[in-house]
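From the shared-data thread, chain only:
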Amino acid sequence: MIPGGKIKGVRYALMVLCGVLSVTGCASTPLSRPSGALANALALLASVPPIEPSELARLHALIKPGPGEEAFLQIPWLTSLSAARRKAAEEDKPVLAFLMSGNPLGCT
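Structure, as tokens:
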């Protein structure tokens, strides 16, 4: 069992599962018989009872972003580097570039 109780164990299981799915999403053959960490993660997730409908509203409120937690959505981001450079030069401001390379599933 994962130290820290069942909740931390479930979080760990979800991380393992997401990591394996991102890697196997790039593989040419499907993962047919899980073993090791994936098998343990799936077994732990299978032991978690389903969410009751009466509990759904409380859980939704718990994970929904609160006021001020999505401030980055208010920024007028540009998707063109040349347009961003032009605007930065006009306003005498620096350019913040967020770059990524590789497959969006994390398979590089």
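Residues 57 and 63 are 10 Å apart (CA to CA).
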